[in-house]
Amino acid sequence: MSQLTLDGRQVPFEEGETLYQVARREGNSIPTLCYDDRLAPLGACRLCVVEVEGYGRPVASCTTLAEEGMVVRSSSPALEEHRRTLIDLVQSENPTGVEVDPLRGAQATELAKLAERYGSGGTRFAGSTSGRSRHDDPNPMILRDYDLCISCYRCVRVCAEEEGDHAISITGRGFATRITTEFDGFLEGSACTFCGQCVQTCPTGALGDQRALRYQGEPGDLEATRSICPYCGVGCSLDILTKGEKIVGVRPALDGPANGGALCVKGQFAWEWVQHPDRLKEPLVRKDGELVPATWEEALDRAAEGLARVRDRHGRHAIYAVASGRAPHESAYTVQKLVRTCFQSNQVDNCSRS
Amino acid sequence: MAGLAATIGRGAMSNPLSDMEKPDVIFCIGTNMTEAHPVAATRLKKAQARGATLIVADPRRIPLARRADLYLQLRVGTDVALLGAMAHVIAREGLVDREFIESRTEGWEALQRHLEKFTPEWAASITGVPAESIERAARLYGKAERGAIFYTLGITEHISGVDNVQSLSNLALMTGNVGRPGTGINPMRGQNNIQGAGDCGALPNNYVGFQPVDDPANQAKFEEAWGVRVDTEKGMTKVRALESVGEKIFAMLIVGENTLVSDPDAEHCRRALEELEHLVVVDIFLTETARLADVVLPAAAWGEVDGVFTNTERRPQRVRAAVPPQGQSKPDWWIVSQLAKRLGAQGFDYSSPAEVFNELCSLSPIYHGLDWETVAEGRLQWPVPERGHPGTPILHVGRFPRGRGLFMCPEYRDPAEVIDEDYPIWLTTGRRLAQYHTLTMSGRSIGTRYLAPEEVVEVHPDDLQGLGLTDGALAVMKSRRGEVVVKVAADDTSPRGTVFCSFSFSDVPVNILTGGGYDPITDTAELKVCPVRLEPVRLEPVGPSGT
Amino acid sequence: MQPTDSELIQRWQGEPAPLLPLLHAFHERDGYLSDDALRAVSQGLRIPLAELFGTVSFYHHFSREPGGHGVTRVCSGPICKLRGSDELIEELEGAHSMACSGRCDEPIGVLRGGEALVGHVGGELGAQPTPLPAPNPGGVEECCFRSIRVEGRGSIEGYRRSGGYRALEKARAMGGEALLGELEASGLAGRGGAGFPTARKWRAVREAPGGPKTVVCNADEGEPGCFKDRALLDHDPHAVIEGIAIAALATGATRAFIYLRYEYPWIQEKLERAIVEARDELGELAIHVRRGAGAYICGEETALLSSLEGEHPFPRNRPPYPVTCGFEGTPTAVNNVETLASVPPILDLGAQWYAGLGLAGHKGTKLISLSGDVRRPGNYEVPMGLPLDTLLHEWAGGPLEGRRIEAVTMAGLSGGFLGRDDFDVTLDEPALRAKGSFLGAGGIMVFDDSRDIFAVAREAMAFFADESCGKCFPCRIGTRRLTERLSGEGPTDPSIWKEEVEAIGRTMSQVSACGLGIAAPLITTSLMRLFPDAVDAHLKRP
Hints:
By secondary structure, chain A is of the alpha+beta class. Chain A has three domains: 2-75, Ubiquitin-like (UB roll) (Roll); 90-275, Alpha-Beta Plaits (2-Layer Sandwich), CATH 3.30.70; 284-353, no CATH class.
């Protein structure tokens, strides 16, 4: 295995690894803003620059491949000054004093954390701001608060490289660069499929999850519970976000074996049914032709009596059960076991034939 | 799934989802993957970006077709002809994998004879796909180093569903595209745990882990495990059960399924459910089906229960409760266990879903190496026959579960119902990206409702005038079984003479129309093809109010 | 009859690098790029619509408004500004400004539709041929300009008559290896500004695995104050084509592109005609002319490749370098017009001859575009090592009557300013580097004591801010912040002002991703070093 010197230590690396990957593996927290593990490195933010002996200028560690014998410094007074200047520059292009709620997206506070690390108050290098929010976009899912955009293009790249939709792109140039859809329109009607991957990679909250943001004022700590998407058969890993007993959002799991950080519009944004007022909250039994509320005891007794009555009248094969293809295994398993043990029949199926 | 079980012995996706980025030729047929399995489709898009060739066969010019390098727009229900002709060309041009055929398959000679009549020219006349395109597709797939096939309900929801699947199986076997990374024959499962429901034995012919109920050894095993006598006969399929209400079936327990909207021939289905002497429904909403029940038991939902889902690539994964259940709702396993106990059963004293799952693992040869702890991170794909086993990401490596892969010789048949003077238009059904199944979930979420607020029937713009229809106006769509009123949307996704509708919206119960036939082996309904007639709705003039 | 959408698409679909010519075809047919045109191109070339929409917006000269193609655009480069381009814009109805259009020797450059014109305040617009470079006063031997003044040199007959295509024949006889050896001995280095040894670049392409190999002639002369490539392309197109053919021979390339800047439309025809004329000389080599659409950054070789490929024209990360992974991932030699035009005389007359042209141990020559406040602006081919003073005073006639030269910019704008104390510098990279500047593409703009250097610096920085591609943070934000600070919009406290300007400049010059951001702050650092009083005077203004 090849070796290089990183901050005075000999460290191993594998062919094809970038200096950033080597440094991170060695526990080094080089700052970045345009970096997302899944995307081809862009080398735009320049925060990850490192000094390599024999090179005239610092190089972006995210785009520089490790080479045998390289002598690399990931931190120095000069590098830290460049990083501080870069953070101050980035901070200066956004309005000051905006508190970014973590509900906006999985990485939404990345810039805020770096600003804190470098003690950047957002007032140095003050000047014009760069982004132009699209609050006129009526879609109820993706907030396009581009006032906070820092042109790292992670959204554009994740849409192209990961989602494969190429729905958003870069318009204009230089400081006037903006994120756009085809013809600068709304997301609906564009090639956007509302998968939300752009929201989840945005490091500033310029893109936000509007469904989740309604719960900004909800009391309680934000907690995440790892689970699996309830829609199609792909089985995407996700985190259910909660505050107290309220579901406030969903985020994709970057390490999900089936999805590797992706979700679609349903998994990402269509979870409000869980705590919808229409949910059945109590057992119902039919009395005089009407379904009326009942206690669990009464309802279970009625349900069991009815099944037993039919068994007694028409035989054990007269009862049929349909298990759910949506509920977990424990549901289907107990249903078929009930049929096979209570009625000693195989009169059970699931909904896969429709 | 029965189609593959017969030919290669396992009716499940042969390769992992991550393999979807590896093929050099991808053949998608009858799958609207970008809408029905959007996250899986991202992997195909990546494969394509890396240079893979994408062949798409579908009656509708779906988004995936628009991305395809070669698109075959076949007439609905003609898959056997198309696939047979592809196999014909592959055989004729010597693009077969002789070594694989000799060492791993049986029935090749019979298939070769059978394929003789499937000329591309003949298939072109049946499918409407030009013979040259069929030949091109055959050569692309036949010459692929790693060719992978993906399909969904567009293949199975036909009277010829099994024939379609076996035609695909023939293609994969004759070219040796099985048992290696980036190859395979891959049915994509539509619902989050439909694979799991089968794994758990919720099937009339199998115990957990696909152990046939008519095998005496299995019967003995479960009598021993459960301490009861078990039936020696298979049960009936759900489709047959619904048909037999009032004759053989008099009570039903339906868990988490809106049968009335999702199943074909909805009118017949409603009469059947109404005729039951006793109907118990376990669900999270008061669905159209639940409204017909004698007892409705409120289930705890996703996000409220702990459990396991198995995805389409055979990967059991943990779901976890993040919030308490709404109201008095309870987990399904608790509800069913309470019922079972009231019916006098033993063995339902579970105190946690972990106990249920561990019992299931102990009885399933494909889950035997798993338990509640080992599925926590979802790293293993079944079969996991024993503890410490690394799982089986790719099936059929070196050997098929049935030994040799079997070539079958399906004949082409017209759909159960074909268009005629009275019903001159093909209706095909499917899913849309922003909505899911019968809308109990996505219909109650604001974002998805925004994207697809109502059902429409997509009619080719060039057909509108001839049918007297107007874009955006209402139309009556009639089949031999019933009629629905639905808004017309001009859309050139489907070819002329074919219209499309989803089955998601209960106010447009499209499955009133469908159900002309069933696959004779699986009893899967022909939901994908239904001849219909479309007429404009003529609104009566409304008189002045208050008169 | 106008071609239909599908005819246009069919014309270009199967061609290499089809996007730019196809967009130009629609632009010229319709007078702008309509939504429908973009939809048709997106479908025809299978480019996602949003990306196409974004990429089109990057280029200054693609218009999305009806009639936009025909709008009059007036050069607002530093020299044209001195000559009154702002007033000319006022005079011409509906006229817009444009970045330096490469006509600093005959201001003011004007574009109207496909026409390239020249105008001046209070006068008529008119077409004007590119001035021939004047012979230098001492009769100093030249390389590129050696035969440019020969009558009829632009036609193949005239070119052959004056020794043209002899070098190519010689090169064929020598074979690739010998040819590279000869070139190496000459010391020829990239004359577009980067100064990389040409023989090494070509050898790298020759030895790189994969193919087909590609030669790209960078004719996107966008640096303000540079117009030397225009003179070569206009008066000696076959020299460039012969240079390309020799490059192809040396590298093993089978295809070549000339990426021509938008502002030289008539040269496209000239080149295409010359390529047809030269087909017997070129054999299997296909040379395609592709015209840019107005983007300074496309002069950067990797941005140029992105642009050719129809991608968003951001510079790419290096490595991999174009020599192994260039146009569509193939090994590619990207060379400036001047470099390629130097090759035939070098092969013809020998490496020693070329090396000997330089002064005081420096090898070869360099074209300089000299403009601004001197008596004889124009293109000069100077021996490497010629003192700047000699060029300014002896060759170009010195300052205008009663004036004194206060400052010059180097490398167009990219080298920042040199002041009077620096004029003894010799024109070669080591000497200029020692002064904190560089020769670059060879544009030198001269400002006398009547000019407001601070205002020149502000315009220069505004140009860089306008042309910053928007990819890397230090350049994208830094050029804007420096422009603001030169426009009175920054902090008013002089010490804070200077601290900020220095800090931004330091970080830009050290960590920017490409030459634009690295070079731009030379403007402010040289301004503060050479003209502290001018800076203080501006900061004191209310």
